[in-house]
Each structure stands twice: as structure tokens, then as C-alpha cells.
Amino acid sequence: MTLSVVRDERTGVAVVTLNRPEKHNAIDLETAADLSAAWRALRHDETVRAVVLTGAGEQAFCTGIDRTAQVPQPPSPYAIDDPLLTIGPKANDLWKPVVAAVRGMACGGAFYLLGEVEFVIAAEDATFFDPHTTYGMVNAYESAYLATRMPYGEVARLALMGSAERVSARRAYETGLVSEVTPPGEEVEAALACATTLASYPPTAVEGTVRALWTTRARTLTDAFAHAPQLIALGNLPPRAQGELFAGRERGEGFRVR
């Protein structure tokens, strides 16, 4: 199974876990479909009033799209088929609160998920980065999500520095991406505590607040997403050239954590 969903009817909390630890919880097409289906199912489950999202294992929360995934693209420069655009809770019309618990790496397409949760709790060993520019790809959707959560200069540095830098959990906390930092292994427990509290409140008031908060970000994201396909079409290197850059770099080569 690429994804597990565990419901606790006593607390009203569901835990959604990306379950590909051997692949650093990278998202292939099956996982993308499973995520969308899980959020849709949770919309209709009255026993669930809050959700925790996390990744299996200690190495990574999620490292974005699985590079082995084959995604055919339309010939038009004004359109792009991106399977990650439908993996988040808001993209699937789920307005129950979602709290993310992050340990290890969160990078690239992970921000499609983190961009649609209410807040993020991270272990001290969590790191955040985006390697798009390193491999000749425009950082469009991810940077748009991040720009609604962090100061512009911090988003620009993360998006532009690519794989050369990783943002520590502490720095992510200082800049607003993360709301709480825990010792490693305690991030899920902390997220569950918050989600349990949220689930104990009248659900219509909680979901209404989630929607009210989202409206402050929705217009910005809509505008940014409208330009993303053209920017990607114009700025991305051809897939073969991207692959050569990826193959030419050693994993973990030359990065610093700040």
C-alpha cells in the first residue's frame, strides 16, 4: 500500500501516512491517486473531524514526485498535466483541519501537500528544500504555495538555491513555515494532540474557520497557478537534459543546512 489511513472514532482523528519509506515517500501516479481518493473519502466520513498527515520512516516526510513516473504532456505551452495538483486536501474540497507531522526531508512536490495543510509540526531533524532549479526546472507551483506561508526573501532563497541549501526545522519555525518543533519521533504525537483538540470542537465552526483562512490565500494561488504552465514550458530544460543533470550529481552532494 502506498498510503495508509487509520481512523480513531473515539477522538475523531484520522492519520494519513505516506507509505513508501524505501522511496523516501516519493509520490508516483498510484500514490497521487490514492491521496486524492483518501481526501475525498474523508469528506464523507462523519466520524472524522480532523486529520494528521505524515510520512513513514525517519528519512523523509516526502520528496516530491517519483522521477520514474511517466506523465504524458499536451503539446500546448499553455497547459500542463501535473498529477500533484490534485494530491492536497483543499484540491479535493476537504475543509476538515489537517495538521502535518514532518520528520526528515520535505522537498519539491512535498510542498503541494504542506501548502494545503493548516499548520506544520516538525521534528528537529526535519529539513526543507526544493531542487528544481538545480536540475533545470522552473519552481512555479511549490514557490506559490510557500509564498503564502513565508516571507518573500525566505521563499526566494529556498526556491532559487535548489539543492545547495536545506532549511532546518528551527529556521522553518523562525520564518513561519513550521508552527512547532519537537524532538525526533515526537512530531506525530504533537500533531495528534492538536488534531484531537480540533476534533473536540463543533465541526461546522472549525471547518468554517478553515475556509475563511483559505480565502485569504486562494486568490494569490489562483493567479500564480494561471501563469505556471507557461513559465514551466518556457523555462524547463528538456527531460533528457534534466536527467543528465540529475545523474551527474551525487546524492547529498555539497549542501548546507541553515
From TrEMBL:
InterPro entries: ClpP/crotonase-like_dom_sf, Enoyl-CoA_hydra/iso. It comes from the Bacteria. Belongs to the enoyl-CoA hydratase/isomerase family. This is Enoyl-CoA hydratase/isomerase family protein. It comes from Streptomyces crystallinus.
